[in-house]
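Late entry, written up from scratch paper. The run itself happened at the end of the previous shift, but nothing got recorded in the book at the time, so transcribing now.
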Amino acid sequence: MKRAITLFLFLSICIYTQAQNLSSVNKKPSLKIEYVIPTVLSVGQSIKLKVKVLHNLTQEKTGQLTLALINNKTKKSVDGWFMNIFPFQYFTTIQNEAFETEFPFTVPFDYLGNFDMEIVARVNEIKDSIHITIPTKKAK
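Output as recorded:
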């Protein structure tokens, strides 16, 4: 009976270890962007776009986070017009730690219509991106 219990425990540990090894092999390195922004912005409004980059990387690596503001109709950059003064930010991946930052910009007083916001996080060949359209309205 003792031998059967010992064999059962040994095999259970072996199967558990194999499952752990397989699950770590199948995990691909990934990035995920989270952000907080209002759904509509007023002309003249200044905002600090809060962005968080989550990852499952186990080694320290340098990454790049970019914010591009684009006119929805013409598809041309409006970064300068919106005073997007920090369009590129660098970060280091630290195991089990997310990177948090802010992108400050201001909607111009004479800009009406929609603009596109594209946020891209990249570490070597690993990439995540978000593309959203944000309408603007006249300030009251």
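The domain at 28-137 is CATH 2.60.40.10 (Immunoglobulin-like).
(Scratch paper discarded after transcription.)
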